[in-house]
Amino acid sequence: MAGSRLEKFGTVFTRVRDLMRSGVIKPSDKPIWFDVYTAFPPKKDPLYVKPQARTYGKRKDTVSDIFYKEDEIRAKFYETYGTGPRPFDLSKSNFVSTSQRFVQKYNELERLGEVDESALFEEAGKALLAEDIVLRRRGGGPMVAPESREPTLELKLTDMLAEQSVGPVESQEKAGHTPQASSPNS
What we know:
mainly alpha
């Protein structure tokens, strides 16, 4: 048979020549160009040579990273609040995730320009809370607006501990007893 049909192995001329020698192609059926190619062969045989890519060292990635501003906002959102209590419902065509709503609210507040850049993230969270979308911080309870907190919750833990530690000492002093360090010999 004629062998491989790939252009990598031999030229079209050599394959037709070999087919004529073996009798597969009759001399009366030879291509028109065959006699011209035989009379005037090219100076250099047209062989298929696979071009070799020259790579020296590490190959540099030509595609640069693409980051949009909303990607940074969304990354900070997921870092702060996580993915949420339930998975995305992609079966609904009009589904908008909580993170997308947050990004939209963030961009809206940024466009209005009423909030400075540093507090914009917190204000977007408060705006979603006003729309009854509760955001839960990672490792904590729901985010609550400071205005809705009770004043008793504003007490600091250190103040409470200080009151507790001062309380028993004052009651002992009022009774006439002074706390003394006990010695190991007594």
